[in-house]
Design brief:
By secondary structure, the protein is mostly helical. It is built from 6 helices and no strands.
Length: 165
């Protein structure tokens, strides 16, 4: 069965529709493993996620430049695309999920220490498993919350309801 024309002509966004998207979750994985790895590994995971965010913002800026061609206001539209994408991704892919997983893992390690007599390595591995298993559950709520936040604030400043897509 053939796909509808609008699906066959849709361009694949390497930063949203391929495995590259998972690089945006690197810091969540780093936070989940914080109890087991040197802090430099956690910081490296943030570097990977930040590189992903930056690359996606630059990509959306380039795409906006092509769409707006030589039209007046092109520079503004490109700037809006870059800023909107960067802020959205920084909040939804790095800052909020990183903080959330960090706190979930810190709380679970503390509670496991208070509630069990498990050896420390078992508590650390359990904390990592809890952190990793939390990631799929926080993604959509955080994404929607950041959409709401930007729709209610920054996007009103530059108008036209533009989003990071």
């Amino acid at each position: 069965m053939e796909a509808p024309p609008e699906q066959t002509s849709k361009e694949v966004d390497i930063y949203r529709d391929t495995w590259v998207r998972f690089l945006g979750y690197a810091n969540e994985v780093g936070e989940a493993f914080r109890a087991l790895v040197p802090v430099s590994v956690v910081w490296a995971s943030y570097a990977v996620a930040t590189a992903y965010v930056t690359a996606d913002a630059v990509d959306k800026g380039k795409k906006a430049a092509v769409v707006h061609g030589d039209n007046p206001g092109k520079t503004t539209r490109v700037g809006v695309a870059v800023v909107d994408t960067f802020i959205w991704q920084a909040l939804a892919s790095v800052a909020i999920p990183g903080f959330t997983i960090n706190r979930v893992c810190a709380a679970s390690l503390y509670l496991l220490g208070r509630a069990t007599r498990w050896p420390l390595p078992v508590r650390k591995w359990t904390t990592t498993a809890i952190g990793l298993s939390t990631i799929p559950f926080i993604i959509k709520p955080i994404d929607r919350s950041v959409d709401f936040l930007l729709d209610s604030s920054l996007r009103k400043v530059y108008g036209e309801g533009e989003k990071h897509e």
